[in-house]
Each structure stands twice: as structure tokens, then as C-alpha cells.
């Protein structure tokens, strides 16, 4: 908790406060901080795994012993995980995972919540940790080059990269995610699943010639795989946004970004301040449901929204809010 306290800004603002007003302010900050007691982490790494048969049960046993919830995906190309639990449990798990040399440099994105966003603990074996249906990931060959958020912001401020080439932002996410928010002037091809990406890019290759391309996604995994593919087909000035949108929010805020960022858990979307937004997702049709849409009589949580009411997508009996929120698991084909 001390490290969380430092991150929250409570320590620097409140300790040593003298005025009554500041004391009330600090009490409010501390109360809100204590309420956000669940640590949510997301991480992935492309690395050769040839021992999944033994690694899978070991990870499941470790997570269950620590009362963690979420999903870990294992594939020959690497690991992809979304977990939530107490600070002590998360730190203990990461310490043991990083003791394995293959995961020693695992980068983790972290946020806090008041409640546990997942209802069970799963460790699954997959053919790919994010499905492209294109065998381009060879961990031994290294990752695609990346651009950090601070450098990207500088490029976007200038309208060009450091070599004077125009910068094109390429959104590799699905259409319903993009509807929640994306970078200014980003290109997207309204993908319904990530496996459509190779064919779409091959058909629009001329759109990117002579430009610097920055592929981006929520946390980095899709844009890393996308960048590798694009460089493989000859688009040499292709980079991935290191850490994805969430790392960009963490480092530089919402500059050059409009809206929020869709996430695959009960929060639905995060603001550039990494706080849960008012946006929701329809459990029936997956459409984005804004705060205004939620006031419509056509919106019933867990049943239908203005976009799908009266259609086959809508369900006749509303699912409970708890079921809708905890049924979300990371989409390997997203």
C-alpha cells in the first residue's frame, strides 16, 4: 500500500497539512484511495514457451492460492494476462512470475478499482495469445520497434516524425472499441475482429507508403503484432505505440486523443485520467452506450440498447448487472 499511496498523490499533498480545509481534502483523498483496494494488472510478452503443459497448472495453482481472479492465456508465442486482487497478492504473484528468466522483464499496466472485476480464475492454452491467423510472430527474432508516448506526443505536436515524415496513426482495434475513443485523425478500417487485419492492410498498402506509421491498441499486444506484420510486407517505417493507449494516458494524458479507451472488463472504458468513464457496452449487441443513451427507455442493462432493441440481438429477459459485468473475459481474437 505505501507505493500505491505515493502514486495516488495523497502523500505529497496531505502529510503535514495544517489547515482545516486541507485536512478535509486529505481525508477525502485517503477515503477514496482506501476504497480502491483492488489492484488490476494487464501484461503480455511474446516469448517462446515450450513447457505450457507444466506451466499452465502451476500458474493456476499459484493464482488460486493468492485468491487472484482473471485470465492468463498461454501460447507457443507467449503470455497474455489480466488479473485482479489485493496489492500483496499481485506483488507476490509478479515476484514469482519474474523469477522465471523468460518473464523477468515483463511490463505491467496497473489500475485500481473498488470491486473485483472478474468472477473466476482461468489459465488457458491457445494457438496465439492474440489471434491474427498469420504466423508472423517469432519471439526469437525480437519485437517490432516501438515509440514511447512522450516521443509520439512530440511527433503529433509537430505533425511529423524526427526525420520529417508525416505520421499516420493506425488503430488496430475493433469497431466498437474505436467508437468509444481514438487518436485524432487516426485511420481505422472498422475491423470486427483482429484476424481481418492482414487482408485489410494488404488492400490499403498504398495509404501508408512514404509515411511513418504508428500502430496502436489498448495495451500494446495487437499493435505489436500488427507492426511486425506491416514491416514484414515492406512498410519499413512502422512502429508500435509502446504500452498502447493506456500507457499513453499514464505518461502524457489525453493530448491528441478524443474520447475514452474501451477496456475488456466491467469498467467498459477509462478516461485519459485512467478513471472509469460513464460509457457502457450493451451486453446483447456490444454497441457503445453513452451516458445519454443510458437515459433512453430503449436501454435495459443486460438486455438491449437503442441500437439493438427489437432485433434478434436483444434478449427477452435482462441479465443481471453482475452477470453482465463479470462475464467479460479477454478476447483473444479482438
UniProtKB/TrEMBL annotation:
It comes from the Bacteria. The keyword tRNA processing applies. It catalyses: uridine(34) in tRNA + AH2 + O2 = 5-hydroxyuridine(34) in tRNA + A + H2O. Its EC number is 1.14.-.-. One of its GO terms (biological process) is tRNA modification. It holds the Pfam family Rhodanese. Keywords: Oxidoreductase, tRNA processing. GO terms for molecular function: oxidoreductase activity, acting on paired donors, with incorporation or reduction of molecular oxygen. Residues 163-257 form the Rhodanese domain. It is an enzyme of class 1 (oxidoreductase). InterPro entries: Rhodanese-like_dom (IPR001763), Rhodanese-like_dom_sf (IPR036873), TrhO (IPR020936), TRHO_N (IPR040503). HAMAP family: TrhO (MF_00469). Catalyzes oxygen-dependent 5-hydroxyuridine (ho5U) modification at position 34 in tRNAs. Belongs to the TrhO family. NCBIfam families: PRK05320.1. This is tRNA uridine(34) hydroxylase. The lineage of its organism: Bacteria, Pseudomonadati, Pseudomonadota, Betaproteobacteria, Burkholderiales.
Amino acid at each position: 500500500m505505501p507505493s500505491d499511496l505515493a502514486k495516488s498523490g495523497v502523500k505529497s499533498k496531505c502529510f503535514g497539512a495544517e489547515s482545516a480545509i486541507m485536512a478535509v481534502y486529505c481525508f477525502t483523498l485517503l477515503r477514496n484511495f482506501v476504497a480502491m483496494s483492488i489492484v488490476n494488472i494487464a501484461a503480455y510478452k511474446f516469448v517462446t514457451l515450450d513447457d505450457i503443459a507444466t506451466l499452465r497448472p502451476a500458474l493456476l495453482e499459484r493464482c488460486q492460492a493468492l485468491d487472484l481472479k482473471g485470465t492468463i492465456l498461454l501460447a507457443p508465442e507467449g503470455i497474455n494476462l489480466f488479473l485482479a486482487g489485493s496489492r500483496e497478492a499481485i506483488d507476490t504473484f509478479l515476484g514469482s512470475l519474474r523469477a522465471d528468466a523468460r518473464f523477468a522483464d515483463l511490463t505491467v499496466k496497473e489500475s485500481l478499482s473498488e470491486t473485483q472485476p472478474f468472477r473466476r480464475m482461468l489459465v488457458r492454452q491457445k494457438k496465439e495469445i492474440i489471434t491474427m491467423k498469420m504466423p508472423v510472430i517469432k519471439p526469437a527474432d525480437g519485437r517490432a520497434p516501438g515509440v514511447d508516448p512522450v516521443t509520439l506526443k512530440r511527433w503529433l505536436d509537430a505533425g511529423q516524425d524526427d526525420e520529417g515524415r508525416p505520421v499516420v496513426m493506425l488503430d488496430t482495434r475493433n469497431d466498437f472499441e474505436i467508437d468509444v475513443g481514438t487518436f485524432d485523425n487516426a485511420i481505422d478500417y472498422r475491423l470486427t475482429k483482429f484476424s481481418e487485419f492482414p487482408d485489410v492492410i494488404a488492400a490499403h498498402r498504398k495509404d501508408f507508403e512514404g509515411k511513418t506509421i504508428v500502430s496502436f491498441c489498448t495495451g500494446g499486444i495487437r499493435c505489436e503484432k500488427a507492426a511486425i506484420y506491416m514491416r514484414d510486407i515492406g512498410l519499413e517505417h512502422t512502429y508500435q505505440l509502446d504500452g498502447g493507449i493506456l500507457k499513453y494516458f499514464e505518461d502524457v494524458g489525453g493530448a491528441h486523443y478524443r474520447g475514452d479507451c474501451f477496456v475488456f472488463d466491467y469498467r467498459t472504458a477509462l478516461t485519459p485520467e485512467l478513471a472509469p468513464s460513464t460509457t457502457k457496452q450493451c451486453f446483447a449487441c456490444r454497441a457503445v452506450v453513452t451516458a445519454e443513451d443510458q437515459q433512453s427507455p430503449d436501454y435495459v442493462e443486460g438486455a438491449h440498447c437503442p441500437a439493438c432493441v427489437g432485433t434478434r440481438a436483444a434478449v427477452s429477459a435482462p441479465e443481471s448487472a453482475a452477470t453482465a459485468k463479470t462475464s467479460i473475459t479477454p478476447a483473444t481474437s479482438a
